[in-house]
Amino acid sequence: MKGAVAEKVTPIYDGFQVLAESPHASADYKRRGPFPQWGRATGAADHSGEAQSDAKAAYQNALMWAITGDRAHAKKSIEIINAWMGTLTRVTGIDGVLASGLQGFKFANAAEILRYTDSGWAEDEAKRCEKWFMEAWHPTIKHYAYFANGNWETAALQTKMAIAVYCNDRRLFEE
Question: Are residues 151 and 98 in contact, defined by beta-carbon separation less than 8 angstroms?
Fold first, then answer.
């Protein structure tokens, strides 16, 4: 992708242009969280919009960093992840499984990109992030969503797999 963008090869370059124009892909993005808890459909203070926005910004800035090499994007993604991992203790709410599945995936993939590139993210922070994924995100998706239909289980599965890959946890991945 990095090479195709540098050479302006379509359709990859066209897709990159869409990404680059996203306000969530901006290194000037203003973080909307974090919060100790968040979840969808929890009431007036569910903070789902803020969590969704920040998860998207962490991931899109990590992608922009990986594609362009502009360290400002790496710094923004690191800022967002570090803030959330220092505050968020759980995802809850009536559809917390879906919420965790949809946003956890973005945080985990952003963290994976940052960890294995020269992003400037300290390894002790990356290790703390492993713990955060296992303590704040995984409990909500641990048993998937056997009670639901459609995308709930798939969302939980994709996040569980992304966390397992990030944590280098083969047992969790095979589960």
Answer: yes
